[in-house]
Design brief:
This protein is of the alpha+beta class. The chain contains four helices and six strands; from the N terminus they run H-H-E-E-H-E-E-E-E-H.
Length: 178
């Protein structure tokens, strides 16, 4: 069934369903390095729609999560990978501060076989970020290295890795809500 909206653009709350996956998760997103140089985050793969309990860790504080959309990106050097997870909520979400811990509870990484993100998984993420507003989406990221090195308790993320997590979460959230 095709839904028709009075304007060319679907309402914000329906974009996750109305837009093709390539609109929600574009092939490239712009970014910057800590020194200010331009970089890009390149799509490695999109996961099938997933129930929230399988896509997000328990301690994320999400309430009213209807479904989850996830995609994994790598930086242009293929050194870093990050999974962006969109929690589609049943109602408005109260804003929350970004978790302060090094390795916050976040989206579960989506491993993409056969490419630069095939060694990135749940044991490899080091840091994450969250972007939300009162809209019906919360975007969380989990970022780490593409070479398969596992997280070590207390490990601190490099500024470039933290920046990738934040920029990716913010860019995808802006696409959905802007």
């Amino acid at each position: 069934m095709t839904m028709i909206w009075p304007s060319a653009e679907p309402p914000v709350a329906e974009r996750w369903r109305a837009w093709p996956a390539s609109e929600v998760f574009p092939a490239r997103l712009p970014g910057t390095t800590p020194s200010g140089a331009r970089t890009a985050y390149v799509l490695a793969g999109i996961a099938p729609e997933t129930p929230c309990v399988r896509a997000f860790q328990r301690d994320t504080g999400l309430r009213g999560c209807r479904t989850a959309l996830r995609a994994t990106y790598v930086d242009t050097t293929q050194t870093f990978a990050a999974t962006a997870g969109i929690a589609v909520l049943t109602g408005p979400h109260a804003r929350q501060d970004e978790p302060r811990s090094t390795r916050p509870a976040t989206v579960r990484p989506y491993t993409v076989p056969g490419g630069p993100a095939e060694l990135f998984g749940p044991r490899q993420y080091i840091t994450g970020a969250r972007a939300s507003s009162d809209a019906r989406y919360v975007v969380m990221t989990a970022a780490g290295y593409t070479d398969g090195r596992p997280y070590s308790r207390g490990e601190s993320a490099t500024p470039r890795l933290r920046r990738m997590a934040r920029e990716l979460a913010a860019a995808i959230h802006r696409r959905l809500t802007g």
